[in-house]
Backbone:
């Protein structure tokens, strides 16, 4: 029941966030839309937990098999993603770069995406994908002469080197930073890209990530095992009932 409540909360947040956006902006960055991700995860969680809960209560073999199959598929997909990500690390890095660059392009189109990028840049102390000049890919931040935006050649405030003593954040601190050389810009903003920072963070937290992966895998394996045990028990009960019906003696004969 707790998992079902969590899944309903995720679905509600995803639907609310989706409805609060402009349709054009949301469709433009569908591949990295946090609202869509929350909605998909919520629906999937609710369906799987519903099958497991109702199947075990009603002793329904069909629902229990559905629950077991979906858990197995999710487990295998997680395992395959981990193995492929390790074996084809260069391709995985290129895919991450593509996602980040797409997010930069649609930075101003989606408020959820904007908050997510700002959080990532502040958390990892980085700016852009590979370097801070990647923000030229955004129509508001690019340095072309025909760009009349007030943010021309700038970077988001989340790229700035903020002081802990600073009570009010200057959201225009990234003004004109793309026009500065790398070393000179480094005095005001984070010049290194987020991809390298993310890779370094993963390498330095491999044990923690492994623990999280194991923590996700064990409940899935336990669920698969217990559902199979329950399915076998139900089948044995059905076979026993059929056997008793076939060999039942009539006391009036």
Residues:
């Amino acid at each position: 029941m707790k998992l079902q409540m969590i899944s309903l909360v995720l679905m509600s947040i995803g639907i609310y966030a989706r409805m609060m956006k402009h349709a054009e902006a949301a469709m433009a960055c569908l591949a990295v839309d946090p609202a869509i991700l929350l909605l998909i995860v919520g629906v999937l969680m609710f369906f799987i937990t519903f099958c497991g809960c109702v199947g075990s209560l009603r002793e329904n073999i069909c629902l229990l098999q559905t629950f077991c199959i979906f858990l197995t598929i999710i487990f295998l997909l997680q395992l395959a993603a981990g193995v492929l990500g390790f074996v084809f690390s260069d391709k995985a890095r290129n895919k991450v770069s593509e996602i980040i660059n797409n997010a930069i392009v649609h930075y101003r189109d989606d408020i959820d995406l904007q908050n997510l990028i700002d959080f990532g840049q502040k958390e990892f102390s980085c700016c852009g994908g590979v370097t801070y000049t990647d923000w030229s890919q955004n129509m508001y931040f690019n340095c072309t002469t025909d760009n009349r935006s007030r943010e021309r050649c700038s970077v988001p405030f989340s790229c700035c080197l903020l002081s802990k003593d600073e009570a009010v954040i200057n959201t225009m601190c990234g003004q004109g930073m793309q026009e500065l050389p790398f070393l000179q810009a480094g005095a005001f903003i984070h010049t290194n890209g987020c991809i390298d920072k993310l890779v370094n963070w993963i390498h330095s937290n491999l044990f923690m990530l492994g623990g999280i992966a194991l923590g996700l895998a064990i409940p899935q394996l336990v669920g698969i095992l217990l559902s199979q045990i329950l399915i076998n028990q139900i089948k044995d009960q059905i076979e026993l009932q059929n056997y008793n019906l076939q060999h039942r003696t009539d006391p009036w004969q």
